[in-house]
## 1
Amino acid sequence: MSLKNCHNFEDFRKLAKKKLPSPIFHYIDGGADDESTLRRNTDSFNDCDLVPNILASVGKPDLSTTLFGRKIDMPIFLSPAAMQRLYHHEGDIASARAADKFGTFYSMSSMGNNTIEEVSNISSGPKLFQLYVHKDRSISDDLIERSRRSGFDAMCLTVDTLVAGNRERDHRSGFTTPPKLTLKSLMSFIMRPEWVFNYLTHKKFELSNVAKKTDKGTNIAKSVMEYINEQYDPAMSWKDAEYCVKKWNGPFALKGVMSIEDARRAIDIGCTAIMISNHGGRQLDGSRSPFDQVKAISDAVGDKLEIILDGGVRRGTHVLKALAAGAKACSFGKMFLFSLAAGGQKGVEKLLQNMQDEIRRNMVLMGCKTLKEVDISKIIYRK
Amino acid sequence: MNLKDCHNFSDFRKLAKKKLPSPIFHYIDGAADDEITYARNTSAFDDVDLVPNVLRGVEDVDLSTTIFGKKLDLPFYLAPTALQRLFHYDGERAVGKAAQKFNTMFGVSALATVSVEEISSMIDTPKMFQFYFHKDRGLNDSCLERAKAAKFDVMALTVDTITGGNRERDLRTGFTSPPKLTLSSLFSFAIKPMWGINYLTKGKFELPHLQDYVKEGTDTNTSIGNYFSTMLDQSMNWKDAEKLCAQWGGHFALKGVMSVEDAKRAVDIGCTGIMVSNHGGRQLDGSRSPFDQLAEIVDAVGDKLDVICEGGIHRGTHMLKALSLGAKACSGGRLYLYALAAGGQAGVERAIEKYKSELVRDMKLMGCTKISDLNRDNLRFRR
């Protein structure tokens, strides 16, 4: 199996599974508790059907839209994801280059393995920085300053990780960052020698953006859960979020908003966007899926800020359904991480190409020339 | 596999399966007829989603709740279950001590294998006695008086076992109390020698609340279904319940109320609580799940008595959903019985600790710091 056999999410997932040591694969693949929200995130799209219009002389549909004040070539982008060097030795550099090539947003996690500056040197494409509010506030201030200097277009603050989710696959596999060899996990690494070789022969693993400020996650083998519980501030409030919005003073999103009430407050503190997300089902199991919730939020605040649907998206048709229900764009993490693991920059490019083809084909089949035409009249919810 | 590999309900169940002779495991694990209600008790929780609120400052979470006039540190307690020394030789001693350690309510069954007097001398935290209405009125009076003398806080009259449920697994395995060796069960006991040794050496198997009055269950082998059908008084009516309630003279609950009408009558006869329960799916298959029925009952009587949601709970998020609908607390039997079988007191403590840490984590992710923060705005029912 190789990249050219990867036609969809499941194919990339399979190839990633072949290439990654199993604790790392399961870190991407897993969700919280019983993973019921993880499954629902995708299943919820099946409770809604597309209704095409025929004979619309579509020609070649236009997939472009604007997001965070920038024109992008298609209504999808790469969600911020931590520690991409674990999945491929080129890490964020690979995903940033691929996104740039397809004219859409690459997002950098606070917990990235490349620096803000490194990425801005290799990509002039649209870039979003993802912020966590650390207990040590100078870390957050520093990240905002550097993102501004490096020409990032937008900032998002993640608000659904006050405490780490209960990811039981990680309990079982003993996943830590950086990876720790235990007797139990030894075999899983030995069976992936190519990954180990690349991991050891390339740039040292570190949380580059916060490395100087904290030694956690770099020198000491910690599970991601412990890192989150130690470093992130569970007392984070609307005031803290508002402080970040003012300090950044540009396009700003809250990532992880699920209630209408919170969406309204996001407007009040000056956000220009929200990402409806449950962190890919990795935090609160039993919580509502983004697609189940997007229409209600869009009806309430869709004219006042940009709505991004994050979670469960695997197909071009999912993107069209989300847009019809009121989202401006969709983002995804797992899907592009599998493609990154499967083939580095080429893998992510292959995925973005597949998605672009799917969206374009589906728009033709739907009879839509532009994304504006993908509106609520194009879907029907099943009862 | 051992205790430290047990992260959730199904892990404890697996370990219990390894340790118990199969007739005993299936007595816990099984339910009535086709076990449809048993499965629905848990899957009902999947038809509703949690909707979190963000940025609320959630450093400290208080899980305490007050039921039957007693403050518990947790919003769930250990439901009364029969025959615990069959599952682990410490039986109620292990479960009671674990409950005391976490300051939650311990339910003791009339079919318990340790006496109310011993339990009362062992723990000083809240205790509930679960009462079966026998044909033998001398036995009934004795149970009531002993529980009162032993300073139990709550009396719960079980009203859903007027006749034995059709537990077909027990028919197949030949489960009886006390366990009976038959040709077909011999092998299942022979391959769990540790259980056999403990059963035979750690004190005689007794039903201390009943054995002075009836031989069935101790000297005479009986299935539980048969015990209910032959020993309990099928003419039991509301008058009898009212009399018992007055005779007890303290906090009194009906366990197994499912209809709004009955809930209202429970208020009328002076009950201070009800357990919405179908006996863990072990009695009437096809009956409604407690969670499905909870909202109607809370709407009708929630301000007049404590409504407890009992059955199907495997996760902290399940409890959050029930509490959001208006239950005062949750309870369960299998919730801790597998853990008891898996590791005695240490097992039950680990299970409670797991649910507790799930609740703390999930409350934070929901943006709630106390149980009373939970309400129906947190929930969206799927169509």
## 2
Amino acid sequence: MKKAAWMAGCALALSILGAAGAQAETTLRIMWYSDGNEGEVMNDLLRRFEEKNKDVKVVLDQVPFKAINETLPVQLASGQGPDLARITDMGGLAPYLMDVRAHVKDAAYWEQNYGPFLQWMRVPGNTTAIPGYMTQLTVTGPFVNKTLFEQAGVAMPGANATWEDWAKAAKAVADKVQAPFPVAFDRSGHRFFGLAVSQGAQMAETGGELKPVDDGFKRAAKLVVDWHKAGVMSTELWGAVSGTAYRGANEEFKNAQVVFYESGSWQTAQFDKTIGDAFDWIAVPTPCGPANCSGMPGGAALVALKTSSHPAEVGRLLDYLASEEVANEFYARTLFVPGHIGLAKKGIAYKSASPQAASALKVFGDAVGKLDPVAYRIQGDPSSRIVFNAAISRLGQVVVGETTLDDAYQRISADVAQQIAERKKKQ
Amino acid sequence: MTDTMRSHGAPARGPSAAAAAVTTGSANILMRLTDPPMRAVQRLIGAARMPYVFLLPNLVFFGLFVFLPIGINIVFSVTGGTGLFPAERPYVGSEHYARLLDCGSYLEAASCREDLFWRGVGNTLTFTVFQMVAMVLFSLVTALVLNRPIRGRGFFRAVYFFPVLLSPVVVALIWKWILQRDGLLNAVLTTAGGEKILFFVDPGWAMFWSVFVSVWAHMGFYTLILLAGLQAIPRDVYEAAEMDGTRPWRVFHRITLPLLWPNLLVVLVLVLIRSVQVFDEVFVLTGGGPGTATMMVVQYIYTTAFANQVQNFGLAGAASVLLGAVLFVLTLIQLFLTRRRAS
């Protein structure tokens, strides 16, 4: 009897040990930044994934956006890094992204729903890789303080209004209500290109050489400089910091100091939460220029990184998060424009959005369909961030009077050429 | 009763004596343990070389964290591309140095190929000159005042030293909050009937506040050095001057200043070196703006290496080597002046 009990105990211990071995956990780390509540929502979704996949534990490392832009590339270049990351510079980081096509259940689903955006994440020449999915599609566009317009008694420009129409109206409002920022643009090359594309900027490559400064670019740059001279834009945003530093005007907009704020769809959730009923704000379609009425697309993608040693688990996680049901919940709760074509067609039910936010999301959703093909191409260009940074750095100098527009054009071209040449140098 | 207690011939009392006994005992055990191997090493290399054995641990750390990075930096400065490991980087020789030094006129940043580097150099020079003058002046005056028998002297010493304990980022954020459009200072100005001043939009104001904040944050440290120097001056020299009826200015000029000179020299050189290296406070306070009016050399290096999409470690490395060369020369000057004074 004693012997039988002893043997049963051994068998039980062995089975427990075996089960523990079979359930050995793989830990995946995600480097993640948040503009609003998306970190919180993602955490919820990950916990549900872990419940269904007991062998995988996912850690969401929340970092500032600056760490994604500056620290992550250095980590990846040194062969270090997390398993996945939420990034915006898809073209720039494309060489470090892992292709999980072999580890997803249905590659056709991915192509069908994320296809156009997957191209942004692929190295030039590759047309098949599945490195990740869009957690958010963004589109640049303006927010307007409707209450200030009403207080000033100035009529708001209508559909198909030009940039000049909006600048004139915003200045009139600001003068009447003593608002310090008639028009504010985020200090970002991406936002500047929202204006530049409508003015006809192409950022074309001729003879293997990228031409960042063309007639459309010059028209946009001149508008920005003239607006600064005329007091339509304040030097506090583009002039107050140097180099490639980003400076948003979201705080100023929330404080009702900005009449017309050129930013983008990703601000909707935070404005909905922070402005509340302090004043009425709306999103309006991107103003028109001589070329079109297009803004710039963009967005953030959750991508697999080559530094991961768990491609199968990464593929499984991405399959789960990119599935229609989970992606739908993510976009709906975060108030993001979907980067999933099927969901974009069906429409997202933003249940938690106020009427103002829902209306803004409708405007941005409609704007996606009006984006010019040039805007998509520029966004997908691996050198786009080089051009954006050079543009914002040099135009920032022009608006404070450090240099002239002509000199800035030469410097932008030289900066871009030098950086591209440096990137091409290989051992 | 322990051996230690017996050796002192009297029983120790209280917990502190027990702790001391434990410490001494541990030290004895450690010495007994290390003695044989150290003797063996001494027999092997000779007594004359033993100091190097004791210096070795520090030298290893110094080599690993100072000399090795300097070497890597130099390698980066003569190689190109975006690779992080030296083996991935093609040799480009002096290309980066030539690019940095390619100027029509060194007095005109716009004529330089790498104009932002020279704007950084110009701004750093301006900052250094103003900061040195202000820092030495205010530290000296403060030290002189705190050296007098005033009421609450200890309190004031602590007050002036307190900002030194703060992180430079915290200092910059506090002042940013005070100086921004809707900050404390503008609130005071408008309450007093004045106009708001956009301090970070005007190049002159931005540089002024960069210097001011830096002086405010570090003055306490230099004041302390000068105060120590003032307290080391023998009182009888002053008493003799007083008996001779020497005027206060003459006392300061002929007694205090010459006897304080060694400390003053240390302060001057430390301020100079720190000014050339300035980055964190100014970067957080002004972001280098307006335009590039407060962009310093170190910010240029940081931006070139990390903030651009193409992280140009080579060009940043070359700029670092040039900056290092300037600091090396400044250190040599300090050594020369200190030794001349001592001799």
## 3
Amino acid sequence: MKTETAEQTTRSNSALREIATDVVRRAMAAGATAAEAVARDGSEFSTVVRLGQVETLKESGSRALGLRVFIGQRAANTYTSDFSREGIEHLVSGAIQLARVTSEDPFGGLPEASQLGAISDDLDLYYEDVYSLPAAERIDYARRAETAAMNLDARIQNSDGGSFDAATGSKVLANSLGFVGEYQRSYCSVAAVPIAIDANGGMQRDYWYSASRTLKELESAESVGTEAARRTLRRLGARKISTTRVPVIFDPQVSRSIIEHIFEGANGDSIYRGASFFAGKLGERVAAENVTVIDDGTMRGGFGSSPFDSEGVPTRRTVVVDRGILKSYLLNTYTAKKLGMQTTGNASRGLAGTPGIGAGNFFLQPGTKSPQQLIADVKQGLYVTEFLGSAVNLVTGDYSRGASGLWIENGELTYPVEEITVAGNLKDMFMNISQIATDLEFRSSVAAPTLRIDGLTVAGA
Amino acid sequence: MNHKQFFFDRFALTQQDLERYLSEALSAGGDYADLYFEYLTSTSISMDESLVKSASQGISAGCGIRVISGERTGYAYTDNLAADRIIHAARTAALIASAPAKHDVAGFKENSERNLYPVASAGADADLTAKLELVMRADKATRAYDPRIKQVRASYVDELRRILVVGSDGTLATDTQPLSRMSIFCIAKASEENSSRGSSGGGGRVGIEYFQTEKTPEYFAHEAARQAIIQLDAREAPAGEMEVVLGPGWPGILLHEAIGHGLEADFNRKKTSAFSGLLEKRVASDKCTIVDNGTLPSRRGSINVDDEGSPTQNTVLIEKGILKGYLSDKLSSRLMGISDTGNGRRESYEHIPMPRMTNTYMMAGEDSPEDIIRSVKRGLYAVNFGGGQVDITNGKFVFSASEAYLIEDGKITAPVKNATLIGNGPDVLTRVSMVGNDLKLDEGVGTCGKDGQSVPVGVGIPTIKVDSITVGGTAR
């Protein structure tokens, strides 16, 4: 069930390859001293079934092309969705014109030729089953997820629908140092968003989903719908609590966003600007001893995996925080040069603009206790299941977010709470991660188990 | 150039082609179909560490085809505007319906053109060196404000969006929408352990001359640097419920989050909004009158026609505290039997339109801002915000103060750190006890996200006092 049987996609890949290398050639002929092109094509499908009826059905394909050129140490970028001859000529001439007005930047440039390459392992990123599933069966996934949610409990009385999404895409990167790389990825997901109403007319909504690169690893639509309903029902009757300072346990759906701030803090772009609370902290303790955080772009089937980064450098596994010590920043070619270091293969770019820094699969290593044990250890505290909004300052680490969840009393989850905030400073919060559970699961490219942080202020009434 | 002619020339379209594509879209019996052609050019130039490290420009063009059958929507798009590709997309979208073809489409009624944004030098056409000069001036002025300003990034981004919308109801509308924005981000550093950040920006459906005459790079630079320097001295924000005074302008994001989204017709049609069923009921104090107005000249949230080709309008949402109306698009107005307020918007040709806000603001009241501050014993004065978010269904909303001060005994005292404010949409405005006479609209930086689609919006508010809202700081 893998790529080699896909005649159509193989053909489109070689067309993309031809276009990307052609654009690089044209840019060099037009006066660039170095050039890099990225070409993408893909198809997307999405459907929402609401109250048993198909509400939306969307299906399309698109492609686009991005170009980065250097004239000496001056750089510029262009992109287009127009693959006609005129469109490509405009793409190239526009980039050359722009690069004549930008500044000489001594740190600019492509990676060294010796740094280029792709990891040879099969990363299991593309499965034909996502592409070939008939529309009727895709709709059925959405319908079954919603039905399971609606049927769980009489208080589930409305719905924002069940949904199924599928996407496949190819990406080619080519540069004037002779690098040409390509890969395909597939993605599918099923979700449900039920709405529950209590006796007083109070409404709550929550959701659940499963995502994978192949239908074979997608959780069943029924289990997704049931979990969505369970998460929604437990919010009914939520109240506000008084302002307090208690231990806070974060559900994996929210703990991963806290771990994502470690990625943002280690982002080389913020580091060289001094815009990160981790700047200058390499080799120092930045988190509790039980905290080990890894970025791995090479995990099989990972949502953040790819054979090479957006500059053609092979992806890798980088230990960012090892038992609380900051071990590595995450870098692309530019930020590595600024810091006098080597790229970590974390270049990331869309079609427009200069490459930034992107994570591979970024995660917190699991601990040894079950999530239930973490809750059981708390006499009085808060279990957070959702964040709303964000006031997170990566320069200072100041942190304040809207939250909802469940109150913990004597080691047990009791009533739901809402309209509260959780606030602290990320520098302290990472030091105060006192417990980490075993439940690491990848539902996106950033993942973390249930975790406990002490010393946070919970603001309410 | 005539907007329609642009598409006809560039993509070799004729009126007969448009009729044929619509007929294909209705070939399986849909009730309504529309075609949305879009041609978007954009440029971006930024100054970073006092270098123009890069500049970017791009073109995105395509056609989105929508077919509605009852409550069902089928959608397909193509970035290849050849006839066979558009017909293929039309037939794909058509499959949402399953009945015999209903009617042929013949003839369109062109909407009368108005022009809310007459622009001398439309964005992308303006001279690159003039844009370069803007970001260089911004960089220089930000650094000149204070020696503690250490990092500055200044950018100028503009786009020109041309749209052609044709519908099987005879709609034919075109528009050319310029949008420009300057942004500045800076970091101040007083010591190894004391850094802060500041940001500012603005623009609208304006040409480059706006930044050369009305709101200059120096104006935005001063604002970004001022915020960063003030934050160096910020103390912990308070935690808990208290009186909050919102300054005029961008704090109007309160209205956008607390009530605006909840009044979008799609959520109310599906009864998933905390505001469902509250029409003609009191949802705010009688001092509050709130509108959504897409017709203000040159504003970021304004458009001549929405992305379904309907003219925008000034819609009263709340009048003296009473909920008066929803923001609607074609689908919801038909299904709910309410009027189409011209709020059907979409991010691009790849997206299905839905009800969205334009410029949402509260009308001025009678209180003086000084009296409002003076009336507070202990509270927060919040004048700048980052983003916000709302849970439509339970009504809880947040917005994040990026510049705020304590009010003690009727006086503004110390600056405090960033904090999230959280409240409940259907009742927060019932606690508005004073409304200032100083209505101000924001500088033109807002981008609203809904279902993964971003559209430019505006907000505005006079100084107001909310008697109780939860402030999410860390101080006791």
## 4
Amino acid sequence: MSLKKKLSAAEFVVLAEMNTPKGVDISELVTNARRLKGRVDGVLIPDMDNGVMRMSALGGGALMRREGLETVVHVYGRDKNRMALQGDILAANVLGIQHLLVAPAEPMANGDHRDAAVVDDLDESGILKMIRSLSEGVDLAGFELRGLPEFTVGCAMAPVADDAALAREVENLGQKVAAGAQYIVTPPVFDLEAYGKMLESLKEFDVPVIATVFLLKNVGMARYMSIHEPGSCISEDMIRRIRKAPDREAECIRMAGEAAAELKKMVQGVKITTLGWEHRLPDILSSAGL
Amino acid sequence: MITAVRKPMEEIIACVAPYDRILLVGCNECVSVCSVGGRKEVALLASALQMHFLKQGKTMDIKEITLERQCDPEYVEELVNLTDGADAILSMACGCGVQTIAGRYREKPVFPAVNTTFMGASERQGVWSERCQGCGDCVLGITGGICPIARCSKRLMNGPCGGSSNGKCEIDPNIDCAWQLIWDRLKALGLERRIEDIMEAKDWRTSRDGGPRKIVREDLAS
């Protein structure tokens, strides 16, 4: 069953995040993608993830389609104005990419091209409206399109550190859903209880929620995120569990697998993010029983 | 200076219509020089608003004041005894002034009566043109005193483009081609060889691209 059908039939979906290379050597990307065939419902390709210049998501998505995988590509406004965004979205459709995730971009100051100019012509709600307009056959200048693109379009929820931030973010998500988002991808989950409570706030939108399973790769990463991302809810117990494990890497995989398995009972899908450890995606899926 | 143009009357009216008592605040700096938000313009706007609301059968209480500088907290403090008698504040300063007032008098709604437009210079009586975009890394020293960022429609750092014709820009025959001006000026200075030096990709971090900017002068900051 296609990703679109599964989403509308309230069936559980699994997305694997795969980054494009910084360069043109696609061998690793293709090898890792082939190992996922039949095991995931789609591959999610971020665009310039973490503000790092790399092969575009459009290119990566087209490559994944060539490999026979359903593909979700990130769309954001930092690097492209409405002309470039619309052109790439039309191209994505023609290249067989049927799913878009409108996401926030990392500030340019945090990336690897810090001196680059920022575009930010449209924000996330603006992009969602633009995609809806294209799907209805009209571009943002009001001109008619020849042939209508069709997409399932999602939006991303930002991490929240406290109740006030959650209230603001729920407000934002309301705007995004009203602007055309058909599903919500939530931030990495490390505390299932807190996440369960947070989910209550999203019920009003009545759209599928896809949780992010984030692979912590080591103690340092877990510690860093626990300090610098207050909303991450990474507990000392989690950090201790990795530190005390005889095989820390295997433990990290197990923890991601456990999170995915538990989240299957709570939401309509998971997106598994490994930040460079895409070769371990099959192990996480196996660990989760997916 | 910072230039501005007055907002359409309908927009200003829509902002203040729900209120009965308005404090209309002008600024004696840039907006006064470009004749949009100084003492005279404050008086004209106050009259226009009063006439409009009188026609609607409503008496609008409008207090007028023009501060020396609306972007300076010291001068904005002068409003402290006036805000109590107002339901809302209407500012005729640039966005910097509006925000200074909004930051100081948080309990009052503040509306801009002008659209802040650009940093520019006066060409002749009643005509101002954009001259600077505040990129934070001035190149005027190598471009003959003409800014390619503010004055070239494409912000080209190595121009001109193919759209330059008879010294004019392809987007509007009334706009000078900045790179023609740069060439003419460098030639007049005997520095035309400079045009062959390719400028590297600009570092935009010093501009707005690096996020909101702030200057802290340790020798002056209290």
